[in-house]
Amino acid sequence: MLESIDTNDQLFFTNINDEEAANTVGGVDWVSESYGSVPSDAILAGYENDGSPLYICRAFYNEGLHPGKVVGENCNIGWGGQEISLPYYEVLVY
To answer: How many domains does the structure of the chain reveal?
Structure first.
């Protein structure tokens, strides 16, 4: 089951170097994980066609921070028309 987030909540980054502002907003947070680990309080984003749960992740790649999905033992992000698999990532949690 997907839960909605209040659409009145807005996120603005006033200082990208401020770790607290960049990592915590509206009761959610990012937790460092690797090799397929997903915390029990991870936000479920949906399901793959085979019924596998999808969790939101983000990972650094090519000097940037990119959103993705946890697949198997990696965070998969889109880059240059390809899906890139990265073993070190953060997962969005409540």
So the answer is: 1
Sign, Cα dihedral of 82, 65, 35, 3 = negative
Note the Cα 73 to chain centre separation in Å.
Answer: 14
**Contact (CB, 8 A) for 11 and 25:** yes
Size of the chain, expressed as the number of residues it contains: 94
CB 29 within 8 A of CB 23: yes
Query: Looking at 1-94, which runs of residues are DSSP E strands?
Result: 24-25, 28-34, 44-47, 53-61, 64-71, 74-79, 82-86, 88-93
Residue 1 within any structural domain of the chain: no
The pLDDT tens digits for 64-79 are: 999 999 999 999 999 9
